[in-house]
Amino acid sequence: MIRNISYEILNKKHLTTDILIKFEDKGITKDFHDFIKGQLEEFKQDLDNPYTITIDSKYDYNKKILLIDIVLSIHDTHKPLHTHLVQVINDKTYKFIKFYERNIQLYKNNCGGQ
């Protein structure tokens, strides 16, 4: 089961506030990693918001751990106040977890599962 392991606001380099949200899932097969890697672009396209999303996944073959990093870039002219920023992070985290869980079911139904 995927879990959110952390989030942090990255050092400011541009006119954006960049937030790194990290996820981890253990006991993942290489086949599922290949499957979900292909689905991550779909998640980016499904989000309807003024933010830029960058997603990177890494798979540790020996430990069978999948790490997914999502960088949410918010242009400073759209940056919400701190309390709303936390709400944005929670919302994107929730949406990603739901997306990931749906894809686990899709993989299990179509590929025979993990």
**Uncertain spans, ≥5 residues at pLDDT below 50?**
none
The helix tally amounts to 2
**What's the story with the biggest beta sheet?**
4 strands, antiparallel
User: Roughly how many Å apart are the termini?
Assistant: 12 Å
Overall geometry comes to elongated
Strand order of the largest sheet: 1-2-4-3
Which band does the percent of strand residues land in? 25-35%
Mean pLDDT: 83
Structural class: alpha+beta
Q: Helix share of residues?
A: 40-55%
SSE order, as H and E? EEHEEH
- What is the CA-based Rg, rounded? 15 Å
Total beta-strand segments: 4
Tell me what you see in this structure:
The structure is a single chain. The protein has 114 residues and is an alpha+beta fold. Helices cover 41% and strands 33% of the residues. The protein is built from two helices and four strands; from the N terminus they run E-E-H-E-E-H. Strand 1 (3-9) and strand 2 (16-26) form a beta hairpin. Helix 1 (30-46) packs across helix 2 (82-111).
Keywords:
about 110 residues, alpha+beta, four-stranded antiparallel beta sheet, 2 helices, 4 strands, about 35% strand, elongated
Write the layout of secondary structure elements.
Elements: E1 3-9, E2 16-26, H1 30-46, E3 52-60, E4 65-75, H2 82-111
Antiparallel strand pairs: 1-2, 2-4, 3-4
Short summary:
The protein has 114 residues and is an alpha+beta fold.
